[in-house]
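Practice problem: predict the structure.
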Amino acid sequence: MIHGRANRRALLHAALAVGSLIAIRPAAAQAAEFHRLALQISDDDPVKMRAVLDVAANVSRHYSGQGEDVEIAVVAFNGGLDMLLADRSPVKERLGNFLKSMPNVSFIACGNTLETLAAKEDKRPPLIDGVSVTQVGVAALMELAEKSWTIVRP
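Answer:
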C-alpha cells in the first residue's frame, strides 16, 4: 500500500513535470519564431537603398518560408531619407510595391532630417504614402535595439 502511494505520487509528479514542459515549450517556440530587424539607411546612395530593400525582401522570404514571423523596420535619416521622399526617391516604385505587398515591413523617416530639408528648400519634401515619421531616426534605432531588435546597416 505504501509503495502504491509512492508510485502514484511519482507518476503524478512526472505527469505534472511533463505537462509543464508541454505548456512551456509552445511559448518558448513562439518567442523564438518571432524575429525583429531594423535596417538603417543614412547614405544618399541608390545602390545602398536597393541593398536595404534586397535585405528586407530576403529576410522576409526566409522566415516566412520557415513559417516564422519577422517584423522589419527601415529607418532613414541624413542622405538616406531621399529613399522615402516622393519627389526624388530612386527606388520609389519598388518601395511602393513593398508597402502594398509586405505588411511586415515598415518605413520610418527621421523628422529632424525632414526639418533640415524643409529649411533648406523652403518647404517640407513630401514623403511616399505609407511612410511614418519619428522625431530622431538614430534614437528610434537605439530604442529598437534596447527592445532586442537586430540593427543592420547594409
